Amino acid sequence: MTTLKEVLQDIHDPSVRHIVPVSGGKDSAAMAIYLRKHYPQIPAEYVFSDTQCELDETYEFLEKLEALLGKKIARINMLDYLNVKRKPGRNVFDFYLEELFGGFLPSPQARWCTINLKIKPFEHYIGSGKAYSYIGIRGDEDRQGYIPNKKPPKISDKPNIIPVYPFKDDGIILQDVKEILERSGLGLPTYYDWRSRSGCYFCFYQQIGEWQGLKERHPDLFEKAKKYEKTSGSNKYTWCEGRTLADIENLPIRYSIQDMDEAEGCAICHI
């Protein structure tokens, strides 16, 4: 695993790019701020793989982060690389859903959204040249996929895209991340008031309490998510396994939300 110390020895090669992917979540934002403050010699590029289905709070957070960094965050999506003509009201998720996956919604067993909306545009953005990808995995993370003796998450398996984990190298833990964000004036994304992590408004990893929070905070997005579901006929697709969103909105109790670092989720979408 490439260390930050090794990267700094390679810092003067102008052909090598230094990419900081931001997800709209706390760790990647803190990573961008941390590198800018402590390693200003790194010529960082900031990039956000936009599914065009993010929460308004995510886009607002990214705008504030961009202002703080004093540098644009490149917003990329696969439609730009596929040369697909834009249609009013259709986003990149809808294109893949309708044109390539026949209305089959993504799920924990078939995460085509992660591959096509997050990984592929990131790889296209970098191309074939050597690049370091700075990943915001903390020194105290022990969730599935982050545990010792197992490879930590990375966005791409391409050999020219080399993952680096500065927070692990420097021992940055959750409390440090919160302090970095608070001291910078950015703070935590406001969706953490009712949601455990960043991601699409209809993410199938959402907990029931998060779906209920979406209904309360963004009833229009909840209704849009409902329209994607197919609840009749032989092929039924729902966001939440075993339940429809109509079932969830009619639940008599309000479900609690598991802590952001304990809840199940897709690591790629949050690094």
Description of the molecule:
The protein starts with a helix and ends in a 22-residue tail after the last helix. Strand 2 (44-49), helix 3 and strand 3 (73-76) form a beta-alpha-beta unit. Helices cover 38% and strands 8% of the residues. It has 2 domains: 4-196, 3-Layer(aba) Sandwich (Rossmann fold); 201-253, no CATH class. With 271 residues, the chain is an alpha/beta fold. It has helices at residues 4-8, 26-38, 56-69, 78-82, 92-100, 112-126, 166-170, 174-184, 208-217, 219-228, 245-249, and strands spanning 17-21, 44-49, 73-76, 131-134, 161-164. Strands 3-2-1-4-5 form a 5-stranded parallel beta sheet, sandwiched between helices. Helix 2 runs parallel beside helix 3 (56-69) and helix 2 (26-38) packs across helix 8.
* Assembly annotation: single chain
The structural class is alpha/beta
CATH topology of the largest domain: Rossmann fold
CATH architectural grouping of the largest domain: 3-Layer(aba) Sandwich
Which consecutive residue ranges, at least 5 long each, have pLDDT under 50? Answer: 143-148
Key descriptive features of the protein:
271 residues, alpha/beta, Rossmann fold, 2 domains
Quick structural gist:
This protein is α/β, with parallel strands linked by helices and 271 residues long. The protein has two domains: 4-196, HUPs (Rossmann fold); 201-253, no CATH class.
